[in-house]
């Protein structure tokens, strides 16, 4: 993208997204919000498409969004926002003002610096202990947002905090892995060759035992371009079955994760 300061310039920049298009569709997943009484940070993934009927042209895209909020006179307002374009498909002429991401070959000399650097911009850095006052289900669901962000941004330090020391899982295509050290090491090597990743997903079900401090959740993997049935029902290309343990109030870690490919809609989702 590009840098803009001031309300009017930011609004004008967003208006360009529709300037050459008849249709603009965007959906958001992987939501996170954390903060205090007057300041907060947020992140989410966005995917969608821009279309031009007269050209029968379409541009598909996936983005990572993070930013900060301030509360003034009882109203929360956007203070800053970073938008990184992860991937695009289709007719680039519909968004010539966008700064395209590196190609499938990865970074090359002359490429611009990335918009988001997780080690500096991850929303969990500003308020590492900001969630105890929210319902436990939100804290549990947030674990997937943190996990997917860390993996997709190749932030292994943040990813390590997502897992308990005794964690294990069936991580396709790597297989069964036991122990946080082996999990993070395997993910680091698996992630290294890929110029980008983006794991869009919805948390579908959570069951927790507050007294024991354990939980289980089902997460549906969203596939942009095939995310809904014809009648609008959410559609998923795979699911995660995850078990978690509370480390301290408001913070949960994964103890087990397994990834299972296979299409299903929201009405027939796997259950905990």
From TrEMBL:
The protein's matches in Pfam families, at most eight in alphabetical order, are given as:
SnoaL_4
Q: Where is the SnoaL-like domain?
A: 134-253
Q: Which domain of life is it from?
A: Bacteria
InterPro entries membership: NTF2-like_dom_sf, SnoaL-like
Q: What is this protein called?
A: SnoaL-like domain-containing protein
Q: Can you name the source organism?
A: Pseudomonas marginalis pv. marginalis
């Amino acid at each position: 993208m590009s840098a803009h300061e001031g309300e009017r310039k930011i609004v004008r920049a967003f208006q360009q997204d529709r300037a050459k298009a008849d249709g603009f569709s965007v959906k958001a997943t992987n939501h996170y919000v954390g903060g205090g009484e007057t300041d907060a940070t947020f992140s989410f993934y966005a995917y969608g498409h821009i279309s031009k009927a007269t050209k029968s042209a379409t541009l598909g895209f996936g983005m990572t969004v993070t930013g900060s909020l301030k509360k003034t006179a009882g109203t929360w307002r956007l203070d800053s926002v970073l938008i990184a374009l992860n991937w695009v498909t289709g007719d680039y002429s519909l968004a010539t003002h966008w700064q395209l991401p590196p190609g499938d070959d990865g970074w090359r000399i002359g490429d611009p610096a990335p918009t988001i650097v997780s080690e500096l911009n991850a929303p969990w850095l500003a308020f590492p202990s900001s969630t105890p006052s929210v319902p436990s289900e939100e804290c549990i669901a947030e674990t997937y947002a943190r996990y997917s962000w860390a993996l997709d941004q190749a932030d292994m330090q943040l990813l390590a905090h997502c897992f308990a020391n005794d964690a294990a899982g069936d991580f396709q295509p790597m297989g069964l892995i036991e122990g946080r050290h082996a999990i993070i090491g395997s993910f680091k090597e698996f992630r290294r060759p890929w110029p980008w990743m983006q794991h869009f997903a919805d948390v579908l079900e959570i069951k927790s035992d507050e007294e024991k401090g354990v939980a289980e959740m089902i997460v549906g993997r969203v596939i942009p371009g095939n995310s809904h049935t014809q009648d609008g029902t959410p559609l998923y290309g795979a699911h995660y079955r995850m078990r978690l343990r509370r480390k301290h109030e408001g913070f949960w870690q994964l103890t087990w994760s397994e990834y299972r490919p296979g299409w299903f809609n929201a009405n027939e989702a796997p259950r905990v």
